Amino acid sequence: MGDYEEKVRSLQDMGFLDEQLVHVALRQANGDLTQAIDLMVTGRVSSVEVADNDVTSFSSPGRTIHCDVSQYTVENGISACTCIALTAASRLLEICRKSGDNESQFSEQVIAETITYGVQQYSQIAAMTPVEHLSPQEVLDLSPNILLPDVKAVGAVKNGILTKDSSAFTSFLENDCRLDSKNDPSKYLAVVLVKPPETVLILLPPFESQSYACRYVLFDSHPRPPCHPGSYMKLCSSMKELAKALETIFPYTDLGSDVPEMMAMMYNCYDAYAFQIA
Question: Which residues contact 39 (CB under 8 A, 6 or more apart)?
């Protein structure tokens, strides 16, 4: 491995998974790793250069859209991530239906509006129940209109368990979610992923799509410093890239031999709720 590749790997190992930004940061820093780290941490990577370096093939790295607004910057938003993820499911599916792709129409404004509306919905629901962290089904039971009328749940709730296997997320999303017989393979699939107490939204492109504009998307309303000081939408070029991003925010936790196996499994479990436009 050459010196440049080692620097790329070093930045990725630190959690900077957006390869496009990594390359631009190193170019701006003239190859100086310390300066590149500073650029990434402070968010001073040139957005113009990133745009000029944009990709036109499905096999190339994706990109990340950052937003200053997060669930922590909006009043009453601290526990609103499930409402935000359900709102994102509706809005992103609708954007894809209208535009035919899920790259050109996604923006910082879309993220901010989705979070703001999701928090508004959570505030209304919070007046109905003392429960702070709600599951997607509990939210839908209390506020079914949080979804657009033609956005419907598809299939049963899927259960997964975090493991040390790096391919576990890929297998779960591909086999358990995307290939479910209840799904329409010609349509986008939104998956609300719940790993208590956090919820994120995943958008999977149509199964047969090969367009560079049909990305695998992670919508996360939580800040994840230093890489993501606010909320963000990660547009990935492959399921593998998406799975790697999920493993970063939802890592397997080894609770040690003193913890009963069943309790350890429960701690590392997560649920997935799938939605499509009918």
Answer: 25, 28, 29, 45
- The answer to whether 41 touches 205, Cβ cutoff 8 Å, is no
How many residues are given for the chain? Answer: 278
Beta bridge partners of 160: 270
CB 274 within 8 A of CB 189: yes
What six digits make up the tokens of 272?
Answer: 């997935």
Which tokens hold the place of 13?
Answer: 């190992």
Query: What are φ and ψ of residue 195, in 5° steps?
Result: -125, 95
- pLDDT tens digit sequence for 210-252: 554 568 999 999 999 888 999 999 998 888 889 999 999 999 9
Pairing state between β 63-67 and 231-236: antiparallel
**Amino acid identity of 148?**
L
CB 21, CB 29: distance < 8 Å: no
95 membership: H or E segment, kind and range = helix 81-99
Question: Phi and psi for 152 in degrees, rounded to 5?
Answer: -125, 150
